[in-house]
Amino acid sequence: MDKLPSHFRKRRDKLIWEIQAAFAGISLEGGVSWAEAQLRSKQVNTEERARESDRTISWQDRLADPDWNNSGGPEWCFLDDTGFAFYLPAGMIRTVLAAADQGVQLVLSMKDRALYREGTPSALNLRQAQAVKTFLLYMSSLEHHRGWHPLFAEDWDTTLAVGWNQVENRVDPELAEEKVALIEEIYAAFEGVNRQNGVSWSESRVIDDYGSDKERKLARERDLESSWQALVDPDRWSAETHIGGWAFLDAIGARYYLPAAMVRIISEGYDNGLRFFITYRPELGDSFEQWSALDSRQKKTVGRFLRYMIAVAEETGDESEDAGWEETLRSYWE
């Protein structure tokens, strides 16, 4: 694959994570399997046997199988809604990671479904449909950036425009209104918050690595943003916590990064690692001193944020996410 600019690599990696999360528990159930679709495309009447041979193979298995060709054959067109939704995450990730000419059959089938089969597959929940939309936006911008296949770029644009661009229409209007109001409340409740004399994000990584005071100072000087509002931009701040992060922030640093993290989660639709660190677990020795700098309004805003995320999880049918956000809310923020 050609070398991508850094902003495309960041988008790609985030997209793959979201596809994996959104489709983690999807099953083929009674849908048309890939082997069955192959036989249907060849008009061979042994679909039932093919279906049974494919029944125990997950979409993650298909993704890992180098012999599975998701782009070159007509199988996509012979899948029903359930089968299409089941194999879609593997097809998307394979396309994102593959060369520019991959995914032709997938995008054509997606366009066909949007045009002639009444929009997005009914087997997709809201979060999954949103992940598909993000995938199409990424592929469209990538193909326009490369400029290799103008017609291929046009296929991605058309597919997005004729059906997949309307997934927000499936959101409860009240939930959509709460999203806007909640973001406004976060900005208001945390207006003026700074991290003066507090631990910065880069510094937290040095602390995790047992760095010296001099190394901490140098790391702190690398975090040059003017305010937490600037960190809402994903290109300005990576909230990953493989090294450093929330566990190594003091109360001032935690209060500073919290609003940006909440706005990012609301906008992107999934947890970026924050939830674990705002769940109070006294049985594990949590003191929650890290959140002691929050005032009453800010604490109420966190509670409102958690209730919103519970509602989003219920809307998308994600039971594990629903339970996780509820646990966090009950632990301290109700």
What is the compact description of this entry?
The protein has 334 residues and is an all-alpha fold. The protein is built from 15 helices and no strands.
Walkthrough of the structure:
This protein has 15 helices and no strands. The protein has helices spanning 6-22, 34-41, 47-54, 59-64, 81-97, 104-116, 126-146, 150-161, 173-189, 201-208, 213-222, 251-268, 274-277, 296-316, 319-333. The longest helix is centred in the middle third of the chain and has 21 residues, at 126-146. The radius of gyration is 23 Å and the shape is elongated.
Radius of gyration: 23 Å
Give the low-pLDDT segments: none
How many domain regions?
Answer: 2
Coarse morphology = elongated
SSE string, helix = H, strand = E?
A: HHHHHHHHHHHHHHH
The count of strands amounts to: 0
Largest sheet, in brief, is: none
The N- to C-terminal Cα distance equals: 49 Å
For this entry, give a set of tags.
2 domains; mainly alpha
Topology:
Elements: H1 6-22, H2 34-41, H3 47-54, H4 59-64, H5 81-97, H6 104-116, H7 126-146, H8 150-161, H9 173-189, H10 201-208, H11 213-222, H12 251-268, H13 274-277, H14 296-316, H15 319-333
